[in-house]
Structures are given as C-alpha cells and as structure tokens.
Amino acid sequence: SSSACTVCPFSPPPQPQIIQNFKGTVPRYACQSIAGKYSQNETYAQNLNLVLSDLISNSSTTWFYNSTAGEGLNKVYALFYCRGDIGSDDCHDCVQGTISWARKWCPSYKEAIVWYEQCTLRYANRLIFSKEEEDPWDFAFSPINVTDPNSLSQALFETMGGLISDAAYTTSNGFSTGIASYASTKRVYCIVQCSPDILGSPCYNCLTEARSKVRSGGPKAAYILLPSCRLMYDFDPLFSIANSPPPQENGKSSYILFKVALPVAVPIFFLCGMSIGYCLKINKMKQRRKGSAAHQR
C-alpha cells in the first residue's frame, strides 16, 4: 500500500511538512533502504559520481535528461526533470541543489529521490526510465484551510482533470498549468507534471493517483510528490499569468479554454477568408461581363 516516507520502507512515514509557500522551503526526499548501501571506495560510488556530474552538465540545456554509468550490479541509473516553465539557469541551479541535498540526506544509499519546487532528481541501481512509479511518495500542505472546502474541492477536481489529460496526452513534456476559481474571484494556481518519459496513460494514471492524495479539509496549498509525477496547487502564484484571462467561475482553467478555443478559431477564420475571396471573385466576373456587353453594343 502507498505511504509517505523519508527513508523507505523500514522507517515510519514522517509528518507532512507544513508550508506557508513551497518556495524557499527545504526539499522533500526519500532514501530507499531496500536498495542497499554502498561505501565510498566502491565502484558504485564512482559510477554515481559520473552520472550525477553528467546530469549537472546537461541541466543547462534541457529540462529532462537521463544517464547511466557502469555495468551489472554497479550500474547506476539517474534522471532529472525540471518544470516546463522555468529558464535553463533555474533548472541547472535546481538540479545542482537537489544533488547536494541527496548527498547530505541519503549518503551511501543506492537509491534516492529528491523533490524540489522546480525539479525532481532520481537515481537507483535499477532501471527507472520510462516506468510509472507511485511509491514512495511525499506531500506538504498549508496549515490554513479555506472556509468552503467543498467548493474548492470541486473547482480543483474539474481543473486538475483537464490539466492531467493535457499533460498526459497533449504536451510533449508532461507539464501543464491552469487556474481554478474559488469563491468566484480568487485564483488557485495549479500545476501538474509527469516525467517526460511516461507520457500517455502512465502519466495520466500517475497524476490521477496524485490527485486522489490531496488532503480533505480544504488546505490553501498542497504539494503531492510521486517519483514519476507531481501535482501542486496554491493560492499564492506558482507561475506568471501576466497575459492570462480572468478565471472561470465554473472552476475550469482559463489555460484549457484558451487551448480549446485556438484550434476552433483557426478554421473559422480560414473559412471566412475563403468566403470573402469567393465573393470578390464573383463580383469581379460580373463586372467583366457588364463591360463586355457594353463593348458589343
């Protein structure tokens, strides 16, 4: 069964982190004790250093990257994925930071996960690429609850549902953002993300599982962190909405509405253009016929 954890699976799950805002807080992590440990003079340690250095080197040029080093029992698999809306410098800094935290919190563990606000880091002594994994998971939430938790839950369920489908089946990077409306006027910023190597139904399943873990009671912010995906919402801005339309009262994301409207609008403009062109052509032909008739007289 699923359980939130820090050192898994033998130590008890921790209390959830209470947050005012995830930005600037200490990252969450999971050290997998079932994978075993290594000593610093082992080949595994050398291979781990190689792949982590490779991840840092590539984090300035891409938002998702995986790497391996070694063979057999000493082979190391590692990956990172950054949020799809951050710059390359922020991605690099986040990956570098999570690696530092992993070395501090999970020294000698062969498998570890570190979640931070802008990225996720994973490494293991087993294949973790293109696999949807939901355990171990962790979470953080705001200590402040809204006055109408049912309305918030309904708005989040509708908006997150659209974002989950978008991330899984429409995007190329598994990342989607949107805005839910609470009490008609208040924005709730929503982010969902999958590891880009599990797009499609695995991504959909992971994010749906993450959504099911949102705590009841209406916390003003929640962050659900799984190995292969993450789901976050907050009343404080999680991303820029400088050019976004106002939130919809039914809880639908303005982001989703915009993406739906665009493909519909393009064919309409195209058909209108064809109709205008056709009308102009007919009018021109009539003018020519009138001119020809006058000449014959």
UniProtKB/TrEMBL annotation:
Pfam families: Stress-antifung (PF01657). The keyword Metal-binding does not apply. Keywords: Membrane, Repeat, Signal, Transmembrane, Transmembrane helix. Residues 25-128, 134-238 form the Gnk2-homologous domain. Coiled coil: none annotated. The chain crosses the membrane at residues 256-280. The keyword Transmembrane helix applies. This is Gnk2-homologous domain-containing protein. It comes from Opuntia streptacantha (Prickly pear cactus). The lineage of its organism: Eukaryota, Viridiplantae, Streptophyta, Embryophyta, Tracheophyta.
